[in-house]
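The authors assume throughout that readers already know how a fold can be written as discrete tokens. The format is easy to grasp once an entry is in front of the reader. For illustration, here is how one protein appears when written out as sequence plus structure tokens:
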Amino acid sequence: MTYATLMVHLEIGRSNGALLQIAGNLAQRFHAGVIGIAACQPLQIVYGDGFITGDLIEEDRNEMARELQKAEADFRSALEARAASIEWRSTVLLAALSDYLAREARGADLVITGVASGNVLDAPRAANTSDLVMQVGRPVLIVPGSTDNVELNRVVVGWKDTRETRRAVYDALPVLKMATHVAVVEICDEEDLAPARMRLNDVVAWLGRHGVVAQLFALPSSGTDTAQLYAIAEEQNADVIVAGAYGHSRLREWVLGGVTRDLLLNARRCSFVSH
């Protein structure tokens, strides 16, 4: 199992240097091709008391064209010498950006993206990270804006005995095989520690059969699981946290579980997630 094709999502109008650096590193490690992708929405025409002049619409169209061209130029400059092949895709559309990205990911093994700010004013340029993860049907490597570069050598797996976590660990196997240190962590109630160790023994044994040497940690819950998981990742000097993204549909919106939501929206280190 490997990643033959990566897709890196660039948010226009901001620096994407960390994303491109990480995409380049992974492309070299896996001898992979890379698809660069960007999307944005035009100004929305307001009916009623307000209106948008033709000049503003034209200015917005020109600005989007410039930003998309710059994103493509940055992508090609960063990846041409590092990837087995490169391809660029971009569009301006009225639909949600995450819908477009999810459709285009059909030709990729792994999607690399930043963390959307969540600011409604940024919505025309930034895909909703939560929606993307839940729709894309591919593993997603989420890179926080404060990250300059990640070697992905030290990995913490946040284990929950769920379908989504099992999917995430399987999808992360190529990264886990290259890591120099892997810790599998389950945070649970005190009375569940013994069953947790049995579960983690199975996970560690399974990883071992795939050539991944891992340590297990079953820890009693104290405070919030996210804060505790981050503290462990800090202790382990982890480059990335692997976790399952889980949720359900409510009023056509994806509602993520607490740990998943915090990993996506308050990321301080890279997260590798699958749904």
Notes: Confidence is low (pLDDT under 50) at residues 249-256.
